[in-house]
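Worked Example 4.2. Consider the chain below.
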Amino acid sequence: MARTPRRESLDAPLGRAGLRSRAPQPSRDRFGRATEWVARNMGTPWFLVGLSAFCAGWILWNTIAPEHLRFDSAAFGFTALTLVLSLQASYAAPLILLAQNRQDDRDRVQIEQDRQRAERNLADTEYLAREIVALRLALRDMTDDIVTRDVLRAELKDLLADLDDSQDDPEAAAEREERRAKAERRDRADRGSRDI
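Applying the procedure from the previous section yields the following structure tokens:
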């Protein structure tokens, strides 16, 4: 019997069509989560109210209940209750410390991520600043090279005068040509000093 070719689903990435989805795995850090739960709940008013009610119930039961139903003696200072509370306190402190250590690890990871994000932001900001400076320089170069209408009119008038003079007086044309060359050298020097 021939297999029918499977059509790839559009909601799965390529190459993953043959893999079956597994049920989510339980976290391997159950104990850590349990310590955080205990630490969170031990600091609540409900825990203090519950612990106080437990101690009051214990003392009342062992004081008022019939003698054969009592399991802790008031004559011995409620020794069993003292042991229970000591046991609770001896386990509470390490559980709270474990929860704090887990929180410190999470904080350390968060601080590292914040530091990396700040470095990326700084690099982006420096890149944008360099780009803005480059744009300003390019704009300044463009505005330096723009010929305004007045400059163009003056140049055209000079050229027209040169044409008229060159037809009339060759010495005056040579003198104007020399002045124009000096003006061009001066303009080049001005542009060079602005670029520095």
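The helical segments are 30-42, 45-64, 79-145, 149-168, 170-195. The mean pLDDT is 79. Compare this with Example 4.1 before moving on.
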